[in-house]
Write a structure and sequence with these properties.
homotetramer; 193 residues; alpha/beta; four-stranded parallel beta sheet; 45% helix; 13% strand
Chain lengths: 193, 193, 193, 193
Amino acid sequence: MYPLPIEKLINLFSKFPTVGPRTAARFVFYLMKLPIEESNTLIESIVELKTKIKFCSFCFKPSENDLCDICSDPSRDKSLLCIVEKETDLETIEKTKKYKGLYFILGGTVSKLREEDIEKLRVRELREMIKNFKEVIIAINPTTEGEATALYLERLLKPLNIKITRLGRGLPIGGELEYADEETLSSALDNRK
Amino acid sequence: MYPLPIEKLINLFSKFPTVGPRTAARFVFYLMKLPIEESNTLIESIVELKTKIKFCSFCFKPSENDLCDICSDPSRDKSLLCIVEKETDLETIEKTKKYKGLYFILGGTVSKLREEDIEKLRVRELREMIKNFKEVIIAINPTTEGEATALYLERLLKPLNIKITRLGRGLPIGGELEYADEETLSSALDNRK
Amino acid sequence: MYPLPIEKLINLFSKFPTVGPRTAARFVFYLMKLPIEESNTLIESIVELKTKIKFCSFCFKPSENDLCDICSDPSRDKSLLCIVEKETDLETIEKTKKYKGLYFILGGTVSKLREEDIEKLRVRELREMIKNFKEVIIAINPTTEGEATALYLERLLKPLNIKITRLGRGLPIGGELEYADEETLSSALDNRK
Amino acid sequence: MYPLPIEKLINLFSKFPTVGPRTAARFVFYLMKLPIEESNTLIESIVELKTKIKFCSFCFKPSENDLCDICSDPSRDKSLLCIVEKETDLETIEKTKKYKGLYFILGGTVSKLREEDIEKLRVRELREMIKNFKEVIIAINPTTEGEATALYLERLLKPLNIKITRLGRGLPIGGELEYADEETLSSALDNRK
């Protein structure tokens, strides 16, 4: 057993995503050896994060202002909305420099469509603001959970009579035909060019 | 050291694809424990393979006849050719039931476009028979080696003035945006529907 | 679907240890491309294995003679017996050049001590020949199945009043304390030197 | 690009052991969604760690007092010293409840015995306090780096005429003979019992 302040901090770090007790312990020993100025910088940065950064009131992207840099950018196409699961997915799409519309961060996926899961998603917010768009791209991961979520969104948005699209399927770079599933390969054949 | 007949057989099995000396040894002990009728069946099946099966004279698919079942099937679309790297890729595409044209098995990929690698491919055979097609789909794996091979084929076939296409890029089932490269994600956006 | 002779051979190779249908198919295509002399050499080597190699009548090691090279070696210590699970374990121990006694290949492990599993082991043969030894080393893998087998053997051999030992526990080369289980680490402390 | 306070925090978390930029970003988004009381608890715990916890003046174990709970425990055997690489290794050995002596946390390993690496270790401190022990157990991981460190320590401590031991080698639980190196297996044979 470690002294109580160490155990407490191991416990708190263990709640971080991807972190187990063993890694949490390594984090604590790292902090112990850190010069006091550096641990103070870390603390100040956490305080700064919690006070200066909020979620964009439109797309839920972390932002210093009420509207994030994308939502307030006049050059973005206001008729196109891309629904993603989480912040990092938005960043990944931005990096392609291919997409010029707006985003909406859903905040998760549903598994088995349980009421409690759906309530955690920002679905109400999504329905309210979606009416003004010409096309909505559902850019949820094509995993099992993501597929369930995408289907749920399609059903939800269908009555609004907006064009709804999904990301194209195909072979990723480095992929091999031999290990591709039939649906992926069918799409790759359809989308050949 | 094992007795000589065992060492000899370990050595031969070690040349099989994906097999190292340790696995080769396990194969030999498996054969030792096999009832004699079953090892005879194995031997007879290898003899049968080497005497009854040849490569289709058109597409190089293994076949009992001069022309394979696909090449001799009157219902297949004779204006469409799909170039694949190896037999199992052809089977994978067939399983999708999406493709109704003919095939050509290239027999490998080129790496670094060395003369000796290119000579191992059935490129001469390909050029001769390709003239009668309307579209050639290059269905080589989008790996580094496969890309080099596909580029080489595109350059080779361009002067023939046939439509040349490549399999579509996109997110495979189970894939995640976060780990997708930019080109794959760009294609997935382009091919949305 | 492949032509029948190919399907038959894929089926036979799929029964080889560690081989699934996909790898079995690659084996068949490898054989197809093999020059006929080389596939004949393979067949001859299998025939030679099945006719020339038998199991040593004492230790069950594959051998060209009734007694294998180890069992018939006058310089080996006939008072020491090492029980191993399979042929490759015997070879691994021989490579250390540390052990000068005889071996007994058990031919497998028991899981859950079911009657049918125990009957597959060469337990009867083991009991008969074991009486003349001073020490029996149970060198079964310290996996869950191996442990069950070792316990079973210990119970079986105890009434014979022979010294029974097990391989020492400890940290393997490249191992890390952090990931070692308590029993392994306790043994490593006990066996320090 | 994320807002500056986020980028700054991603950068700080990226320096944590085992954390890359992608995981660091997930940590930041986790903190953003954390209720303010919980992020305050985290900050207070870090402050508590940095103010209340120091390194034991004898063994360098994190401790609330000048001497840690082990070093100040009168029931521990003061003639036995166990040198470990890091805090978690000490905890792992404590969990076995097998060892009743004292510890010394070296604080790392040397690679290639470069001056600058050795200076980072607490070698000077070790030499000073070691004279009163009857046995010193070098419990450094048997990895390549660990071996180099252990050899270095052995040379360093030899002139002091104290019994120096190393953790025993052998098969770990779950290990398999087939994959064991020769030295490990030799030790397992030597340490049989």
